[in-house]
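=== RUN LOG ===
request id: a7f3
mode: sequence -> structure
chains: 1
length: 476
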Amino acid sequence: MRKYFIGYSFVFQMRGDSSGLKSIRILFNQRNHNLHFHVMGGILTLSFMKRRITLFSIAALCVGFSLNTSAQILRGSTTVSGTNNMDITVTVNTNTNMVEIEMTGMNGTWFGYGFGGSSMSGRYTMITDGAGNFQERQLGTHTAGSALSSSATVTSNTTSGSVRTVVVSRSRVGQSASYYTFPNTATNISLIWAKGSGSSLSQHSSSNRGSSILTLQNICNFPATVLPNITVCSGDSAMIFGNWESQAGTYSTTLTSSVGCDSVVEQTLVVASSLSGNLPLITLCPGDSAMVFGHYVNTDGSYYDTLQSSGGCDSIVRQIVNTENLVPVVVQNGTTLNASGTNATSYDWIDCNTMQSTGVNSPIFNATANGMYAVIVTGNVCTDTSACFTITGIGIDENSVSTTLSQPNPFNDHLQITGGSEGAEIRIFNTTGVEIYSATRESVSQDIPTTNWPAGLYIIQISTPRETLVQKVIKQ
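=== RESULT ===
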């Protein structure tokens, strides 16, 4: 027992080998039907419900039904004599190169059909006698001519009331010049027909014969069946006609319809892009944070989130976070302050006592009055303020002070303050304006150790509510 699967709709079981007439059982729509098949010229045909259907070649069985998928089914029917119940239907299957002819006539008398012309002489004819016996003949000139060896197989021979129906099949191409070769394109076939008056082949009257035309038409002009589009995301694939496909395009397959015609099915695959992109840069100032994809972050870096696009595909979004570090740096040289800052775009010098702008907006600040000054540095996004720097020694003429504030001058390891009254404020600065000593005057002569002071110029400032005294001294 061998089981084969045909198309998508039914299964049949076959017993025996592939020659001669065998029995076959077919399971279709959950109902069993008894059929017969015949093998001729390597072609397997089924007889089912008075119809002879060519299925496939025996060679196709051996290779798993590798069928020719460019089939045309040509069919034509005509009534040549309504009075005599004579109808004929011809079906040409160009895929299998087989022809099926269904002929009707009066039961109990002979009837016949000739093909390829309107005269008798040399005409290939199929005749059924009054007893239902079928034969092929080549007619003579107004004679019965001669019988031909059989090239056709009777697949059905039935009667219903007074009408006999005979169905035969044969190769489309005739065995020799004596046989008719049926066309393989849509066209007209010239016919002759005749009906006898008895069961034997004999002369017939003029009212029981004639000619006609049968028109073959292609019944396989079916439009392609277009299935709904399948959409996948980039990198995914879909099963289309038994194969996994990942490239966008239209795919097609050719099936065989119930009558043996090609049936083209088309399936379009749409590949939707998986989007990715960058959001605008977020710039933080030192100590700040920002909301990124539902979380606060305060660390520089790239953050990612996966969203879903309108097409249902993943969309990867990147957010870059960067901190702008200005780090203002101020260098003091006497009464001049020089500022710089990473990513700085502008400067504004302010008075630390009043927090008001001095109106100076350059990196270099030349003080015109004693005091404490700082710079506000602005970058692309952020702003930072430097420490305050002290400026002294502006606007006081040392030579106008007759009082000696300290001794000795120059000095080495110590400096003795002799000027100013008790309770005065003593402040000493280096030449860069950095205060290195401060105290309150406690005695007439106050000694200050200076062993660790670098050699150079120093400014002594002694202030009381009434006056400020300044003296420059040098350490050797």
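=== NOTES ===
The CA atoms of residues 251 and 267 lie 5 Å apart.
The longest strand covers residues 262-272.
=== END ===
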